[in-house]
Amino acid sequence: MNKYIGPIKGLGGSAVIAFIIAVIVSALLPSLGDDARNSVLVNAVPFFAIFVGILLLFILCIALVAIRYNGKIPPRTYGRVELTIIAGILSGVVFLFQPFSFVPYRYGFLLLLFSTLLFILWSHVLGGSRQLELKLPKIGMVPNVVAGIAAVIIVVLIVAGGSSANAPVPPYGVRERVFNSYSEERKAEIAAEATASFTQVELPFLVVFGLFPALLVFFIVRETLADTRPQIVAAAAPAASGAD
User: Fold this and answer.
1) Residue 138: its pLDDT value, please?
2) Is it true that the peptide bond before 75 is cis, omega within 30 degrees of 0?
3) What is the dihedral sign for C-alpha 208, 209, 214, 220?
4) What pLDDT, on a 0 to 100 scale, did the predictor assign at position 136?
5) What DSSP string describes 126-149?
6) How many CB atoms are located within 10 Å of the residue 216 CB?
7) Domain ranges of the chain
8) What burial class does residue 165 get, using C-beta atoms within 10 Å of its C-beta: 0-12 exposed, 13-18 middle, 19+ buried?
9) pTM for the whole thing?
10) What is the mean pLDDT of residues 146-166?
């Protein structure tokens, strides 16, 4: 436990101080003179302090994860998590720059951002040695099944959340004044087109989008539930001598 206290005090304490500075300066801004209140530097202090605080918390997260898991994650999980994160980065770039649909563009930035942050974190964690993995038994059925269920739950939550947030609602991308001027038949036609587009394009994409965090959860849960007791290899019995 003592190995966590130093980073928490240094990085966590500095982040708290940065947030306090942001709150104090924001509270004092209305009472300052016009020149100071309109100064770019003074107004930048809360934003900069919050940014520094968030950055310090992220660095603290990296430090704590590295302390906890350095050398303890077998290559069978470490490499697959790393490949999934890299696939998320590449897919985010493709989603942002593809010219075919606006739907992947909306989610591409989030995927690229979180994949990049995860890659920075994961690159500071040292994977376990190959000898460590050779000592471990194979992952059984129960960890695989539970991890698969957890992955499915993640996909369902992402699809449900994305559907709730982005489901088509009036005026369905049309200016409200223009939409209200349409007849009821035209409104119903626009609503049907928007719903069909959402069902045929966005919902399938949300499933694809959810596969990246689902895979990460699958590998992490599976390794967490796997048997980590080293295999005991029985020594070969000594050959019986020819003489009785």
Assistant:
1) 84
2) no
3) positive
4) 77
5) PPPPHHHHHHSPPP-HHHHHHHHH
6) 20
7) 1-69
8) exposed
9) 0.77
10) 91
